[in-house]
Amino acid sequence: MTKKLLTLLAVLALAGCATSPVLPEICPQTGFIENADRAPFFDGDKVIVRATIAGFGGDCRFAKQEKGETAKKAEIDLTVPFVARRSAESTQKSIELPYFIAVLSPDEQVLQRQAFRTVLTFNKDGHAEGEESHRVVIPVPAGAPADAYKLAVGFALTPDQLKYNEERK
User: What does the domain layout of the chain look like in residue ranges?
Assistant: First the structure.
């Protein structure tokens, strides 16, 4: 091989090393706690309101690590939509829905848990909907994968509400 060709191959080989892609971080998983995405509300034995967390949405990014920080920060802007329907017998004008957002470690231990309440107002047809937005920051230790962490959303249910949901899977 000629000297020029060897030089060109060496430059191309080095260029390939310098431009190897940096894989982007994968955001933490988001999901529901089993049987906690629905909430029945009772009057005696009768269900008079049914509420649902109708999914979730949002955006995730990683904050720039400052000098001396040992953890990267996953910042999640989470949107949680709610819908509710009251029974024909109910005269309720609104319903207060207690819910939570929790951060789980890779071994599913609760690292953070925040409780919230939202109030939905029923229209004349007995339907209600609303949406809440939250920013959740998860410190992820250096070298740990952010997607091993989980963000969980659910209603803060009473034992009777949970039992009702479990019986109607």
Answer: 24-167
Strand order in the sheet with 110-121: 29-32, 150-155, 94-104, 110-121
Beta-strand (E) ranges in 8-145? 29-32, 38-43, 46-53, 57-63, 71-86, 94-104, 110-121, 127-141
SS3 70: coil
> 78 forms bridges with which residues in the sheet?
58, 134
Whole-angstrom distance, CA of residue 55 vs CA of residue 96: 18
pTM of the model: 0.81
Per-residue pLDDT tens over the stretch 90-105: 999 999 999 999 999 9
Alpha-carbon span 81 to 54, nearest angstrom? 5
Retrieve residue 103's tokens: 């951060």
| 16-61 per-position pLDDT tens digit | 444 445 556 788 988 988 999 999 999 998 999 999 999 999 899 9
Q: What integer pLDDT is reported at residue 13 of this predicted model?
A: 43
% helix, strand, coil for the chain, step of 5? 15, 50, 35
24-167 CATH: 2.60.40
